């Protein structure tokens, strides 16, 4: 299939959202609310729970599953208070030595006037700085769309995983075509050029793992089996990362992001 056909798969409204991942993978999840400064952003779900017998902090970008829930969740475009809520939970995770798991699915952060007035760019930048130095393991999984700074604000992690038909990019193909070609209809061409799929990003060293999707991702039984297998992968890798000394963990995370620019170009 074409690159843009895969983009449409990443955006399929029947794909499981972050809430579904949390419900199946995390036991006894307790959601926390608010950034302690302005409001509670419903696009960001965050809280604590159990991954097998390990207490973890979980943060997810939730799009919603129908029109009512999508409007409630801001269509998965987080506001600055959402990123501040996420950072509050990261500080808490560090204090209590809980690993962090993030599920990312967003076209990008909210871009309305209110978000700009309340400093959405600064809130994302603050998250990038904090995640680089936080002293607990972090795994981020791109489960659908990974759009721009809205995704990166939860993706400065020890390991970034991607589902095989998700994408992770500085810009959406439609926006790229509008800017570069002055024609949004050339979105297919832009999608091919951006190299935004898991196999491209694995080759570039930007991600660490590609997660195979079930053939019928919208089938309830297939989805359940897929999520339980992903849970086992998370259990193993959280244990592995937790066995590292803090200095080793931070040094490896720093080097991971420093080395990306030294990888060869794809072309």
Structure notes:
The chain has 267 residues and is α/β, with parallel strands linked by helices. The chain has one domain (3-252): 2-enoyl-CoA Hydratase, Chain A, domain 1, CATH 3.90.226.10. It is 46% helix and 19% strand. It contains twelve helices and eight strands. The protein has helices spanning 3-10, 18-25, 67-72, 80-95, 113-117, 120-133, 148-152, 173-180, 187-194, 198-204, 220-242, 246-259; strands at 27-32, 44-51, 54-61, 100-106, 138-147, 159-163, 167-169, 209-211. Strands 1, 2, 3, 4, 5, 6, 7 and 8 form an eight-stranded mixed beta sheet that branches. α4 (80-95) runs parallel beside α6 (120-133) and α8 (173-180) crosses α9.
Number of individual domains? 1
**What is the first-to-last residue Cα distance?**
19 Å
- CATH third-tier fold name: 2-enoyl-CoA Hydratase, Chain A, domain 1
Architecture (CATH level 2) name = Alpha-Beta Complex
Q: Strand count, sense and closure of the main sheet?
A: 8 strands, mixed
Runs in which pLDDT lies below 50 for 5 or more consecutive residues are none
Count all strands and give the number. 8
Name the helicity range: 40-55%
